[in-house]
Amino acid sequence: MAMKIWHQSFTVLSDLGAYDDALKAHFKRVARPDTEIVMHGMKPGTYRTNYPGIDIRYAGLQHLHATQFIQAGLDAEREGFDAYAISTLPDPALRETRSMLRIPVVGYGESAMLSSCLLGSKFAVMVFISELTDLIAANAEKYGLAGRFAGVTDVGFRFNDVLEAFSSPGPLIDRFREAARKRIAAGAEVLIPGEAPLCVLLMSQGVSSVDGVPVLDSLSCWVKHAEMLVDLKRQSGVERCQRGYFNEPPPRERIDELMAFYGRGSAA
Question: Which InterPro entries does this chain map to (predicted)?
């Protein structure tokens, strides 16, 4: 049976032509034929440039931007989507959004970390926004995976280098492998390409391992987790916990009242 997933990026996708195109091609390749992934980005004008990292390196600004993720999740449920996917490594407002919705909600970072535990005993995260290091470590602990976390490695290049590499990937991939070997030497048995642009670049070039250590297709992980959760709900009636402070969904009419009160309209 067909399903429809709302993808939410931390970028303004219309600003990033090459990445936007590569992402569409990747989703078409990895999703089931009857799965439709509808891509959404942040509102135009969210950032001063096409680079989110200038803002999301700060906890306070990331928190403010996370309101777009919450609103997008509410819109996804209202519009009849089967699942909602926060497709960015920091997983902004993942727990809060999940607590408000009755459709499955997945996060890029959480899905990647959980999947890594099936492939090796220790995972490391490779990033080009080094200021996210503390957040990634905190998320690993929040997900109960601190004992499996082998740290974060700065790959030594930045966002615009990744965008430029879509037309000439070879040199950047060599730099990624060099950084990966340092983390492998420190004990990593799985490598998570942190931010989604790096992930889709590596996967488009067939980079699935470095010296026998898997390089995770983090984007595919959340796609498969979303499909699985929708299937579980449809076929077995199994869905997330509905009890407790972090789980019980508030009345939808009260959510809408408060979103309006705080000046948050539709994400569309």
Answer: Asp/Glu/hydantoin_racemase, Hydantoin_racemase-like, Iso_Racemase_Enz_sf
Phi-psi domain of 204 (left: phi exceeds 0; alpha: psi -120 through 50; beta: other): alpha
Number of domains in the chain: 1
**DSSP of 106-156:** EEHHHHHHHHHTTT-S-EEEEES-GGGHHHHHHHHHHTT-GGGEEEEEE-S
CATH code of 252's domain:
3.40.50.12500
pLDDT, one tens digit per residue, over 174-185 is 999 999 999 999
- Do the domain assignments include residue 141? yes
At 9-37, the pLDDT tens digits run 999 988 877 888 899 999 999 999 999 99
**251 φψ region: left (φ > 0), alpha (ψ -120 to 50), beta (else):** beta
Residue 267 falls inside a structural domain: no
Q: Token pair 């990445």 is at which residue?
A: 19
End-to-end Cα distance, the chain: 27
Other beta carbons within 10 angstroms of residue 54's beta carbon come to 14
